[in-house]
């Protein structure tokens, strides 16, 4: 999981930058409406719409990538557990029995 930290940090930084740019453009749009300069408002509105669209696309792409990475990690962990159980069946039975005893004791206390 340690190998995901740089990517997560990079994604977080990119998200912050995207949101900062979007916020900046919206602020410019709000300030421009105070001037009531019609050509300036249209230009800033177009920029805000483009940045909003770009940010939305990036967020969707990141969400899909993070989902894929999480799915792959879970699959790898499940495969590792399966291999362990096949390689160590008696140990696995012992662990399962111990967990059953612990859960039984916890339920019995209620």
Automatic annotation (TrEMBL):
<dbReference type="InterPro" id="IPR043604">
    <property type="entry name" value="DUF883_N"/>
</dbReference>
<feature type="domain" description="DUF883">
    <location>
        <begin position="13"/>
        <end position="60"/>
    </location>
</feature>
<dbReference type="InterPro" id="IPR043605">
    <property type="entry name" value="DUF883_C"/>
</dbReference>
<keyword id="KW-0175">Coiled coil</keyword>
<keyword id="KW-1133">Transmembrane helix</keyword>
<dbReference type="Pfam" id="PF05957">
    <property type="entry name" value="DUF883"/>
</dbReference>
<feature type="coiled-coil region">
    <location>
        <begin position="12"/>
        <end position="65"/>
    </location>
</feature>
<dbReference type="InterPro" id="IPR010279">
    <property type="entry name" value="YqjD/ElaB"/>
</dbReference>
<feature type="domain" description="DUF883">
    <location>
        <begin position="82"/>
        <end position="110"/>
    </location>
</feature>
<comment type="similarity">
    <text>Belongs to the ElaB/YgaM/YqjD family.</text>
</comment>
<keyword id="KW-0472">Membrane</keyword>
<protein>
    <submittedName>
        <fullName>DUF883 family protein</fullName>
    </submittedName>
</protein>
<keyword id="KW-1003">Cell membrane</keyword>
<feature type="transmembrane region" description="Helical">
    <location>
        <begin position="90"/>
        <end position="108"/>
    </location>
</feature>
<keyword id="KW-0812">Transmembrane</keyword>
<dbReference type="Pfam" id="PF19029">
    <property type="entry name" value="DUF883_C"/>
</dbReference>
<keyword id="KW-0997">Cell inner membrane</keyword>
């Amino acid at each position: 999981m340690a190998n995901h930290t740089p990517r997560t940090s990079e994604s977080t930084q990119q998200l912050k930058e995207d949101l900062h740019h979007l916020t900046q453009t919206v602020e410019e749009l709000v300030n421009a409406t105070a001037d009531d300069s019609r050509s300036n408002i249209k230009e800033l509105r177009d920029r805000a719409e483009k940045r909003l669209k770009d940010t939305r696309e990036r967020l969707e792409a990141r969400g899909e990538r993070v989902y894929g990475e999480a799915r792959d990690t879970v699959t790898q962990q499940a495969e590792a557990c399966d291999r362990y159980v096949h390689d160590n069946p008696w140990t696995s039975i012992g662990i399962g029995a111990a967990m059953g005893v612990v859960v039984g004791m916890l339920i019995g206390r209620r």
